[in-house]
Amino acid sequence: MRAWPAPDLPDLPGRGLPVRLHDTSSGSTRVAAAGPTASMYVCGITPYDATHLGHAATYIAFDVLNRAWHDAGFAVAYVQNVTDVDDPLLERAIETGQNWRDLADQQTQLFTDDMAWLRVIPPQHFVGAVESIPVIIELIQRLQAAGAIYDVDGDLYFSVRSDPKFGQVAGLDPATMRDLFAERGGDPHRPGKKDELDCLVWQRARPGEPSWDSPFGPGRPGWHVECTAIALQHLGMPFDVQGGGNDLAFPHHEMSAAHGQVGEERWPFAHVYAHAGMVGLNGEKMSKSLGNLVFASELRRNGHHPAAVRLALLSGHYRADREWTDDLLEQASARLDRWREVARSSAAPDAVQLLSDVRGHIADDLDTPGAIATIDRWVDSAAGAGQPMDPSAPALFSDLVDALLGLSLE
Ligand code: 5CA
Ligand code: ZN
Q1: Based on the domain organization, do 309 and 221 belong to the same domain?
Q2: Rounded CA gap, 100 and 85, in Å?
Q3: 15 in any annotated domain
Q4: If I label 222, which of 204, 275, 316, 380 is the partner at 20 to 30 A Cα–Cα?
């Protein structure tokens, strides 16, 4: 698939610091990549109802990480998938009477337009599940050879017991795993399964559903194995960061890691599992199934500035579950106006220390609220009397806000 065009990325003086990220698996905050390279796989959209502000918040959070790595001088390998065939997409297509491929194409186009509008740096590899079916089949064959696959009425399941490290990504107790598995697309009660948590890797063709030929008969891939196959193809393992919203920690990232660990006979799948909080509206997680969505494209159509949307989303910490409100957007617009005024002025207080402080906040588990508060104090000081003023400071300020936070003050 083709990703979206890259935004300009100003060069900043000096170098950023290696970012420390909270890792769900260990529960610790650790350097995500020490350089000179960094690799990241961020789970992409299932293309229907794109791009709501929960999606946007998650991709912007990992964009801040990507920007920090660029600022540190690292060569970044970034991969993102598109789940362009899966149950929820097919269900939506049936509901609306649309062809599932047309729905996926339209929604993927909308998503890429939104990402470009929001100045998100594109992944080098933006990869659909459908185009990855050959590598998914190869991975399932490797899992078969490892004795990790069994058949239930023509559907192929992965045995979670084949991975001695299964459970270590999300670190949940068995009852919670079972509940979340049932809630998030799993089938714990299907007769014939060896373990309730075993997950589908290949679903035999059903009437009226798309299917592809395979050595296991015609069918389509399961969800988790899709991400494993794409990550292995483009990054290999271990890679540095497996990212997504916290709704993916279990079962999705747990299963993807187990597939990789068994298929490659290595551990770990990723060094750090990083999870963004859920963005809600009116007290509920923003989600397709609840229908309480605010779309990036709606704000785009209504003439909102992308920097205001980004700043509103970055004003909360990426790991916190949080609410989207109209107020948040208004506050962000007002803040941007204040920042723009300083960026356009002929001189401002020295911004070299500000750059180092903002870098410090971002390196500390992407503390964007801390970075924003520091910038606010500097902007306030620009209005104060008796400050030594530096004519090069407005340009440096504008560049640092653009390069590190993705906000254009033009
Ligand atoms: N295609 C799969 C991943 S392989 C998927 O989860 N797609 S999705 O469209 O449902 O979500 C895309 C990304 O947005 C995921 O990282 C998901 O965790 C994140 N996400 C979904 N809803 C929210 C929300 N309300 N707040 C924050 N992030 C969200
Ligand atoms: Zn995924």
Answers
A1: no
A2: 8
A3: no
A4: 275
Q: Which residue has the tokens 């899709």?
A: 226
Residue of the nearest CA to atom 12 in ligand 1?
Answer: 45
Q: For residue 251, what is the domain's CATH number?
A: 3.40.50.620
Round to whole Å and give the CA distance between 76 and 110. 25
Closest C-alpha to 269, from 243, 299, 237: 237
For ligand 1, say whether the CB of 276 is within 6 Å of any of its atoms: yes
Residue 128, ligand 1, Cβ within 6 A: no
Burial group, residue 346, by CB count within 10 angstroms (0-12, 13-18, 19+) = exposed
* DSSP classification of residue 122: P
User: Which of 276, 304, 321 is the last residue before a domain boundary?
Assistant: 276
Q: Residue 82 CA: which ligand 1 atom is closest? A: 1
Does the CB atom of residue 245 touch ligand 1 within 6 A? yes
Query: Ligand 1 centroid vs 278 CA: distance in angstroms?
Result: 9
The answer as to whether 245 is a domain residue is: yes
Mutate to test the pocket of ligand 1, among 43, 110, 281 (most ligand atoms within 8 A of CB): 43
Q: For the segment 188-213, what is each residue's pLDDT rounded down to a tens digit?
A: 999 999 999 999 999 999 999 999 99
Ligand 1 centroid distance, CA of 50 (Å):
10
User: Do 258 and 339 have their domain in common?
Assistant: no
Give the model confidence (pLDDT) of 222-231 as tens digits: 999 999 999 9
272 - beta bridge partners?
241
Cβ neighbours of residue 390 closer than 8 Å, sequence gap 6 or more: 347, 348, 349, 350, 351
Ligand 1 within 6 A of CB of 315: no
171: helix, strand or coil: coil
**More confident of the two residues 318 and 293:** 318
CA–CA distance, 323 with 278 (Å, rounded to integer): 8
Question: Is the beta carbon of 251 within 6 A of some atom in ligand 1?
Answer: no
Tell me the pTM.
0.97
- Co-location of 103 and 213 in the same domain: yes
Residue nearest ligand 1's atom 4 by CA: 43
Q: What range does the domain containing 351 cover?
A: 292-405
Q: Is the CB of residue 113 less than 8 Å from the CB of residue 4? A: yes
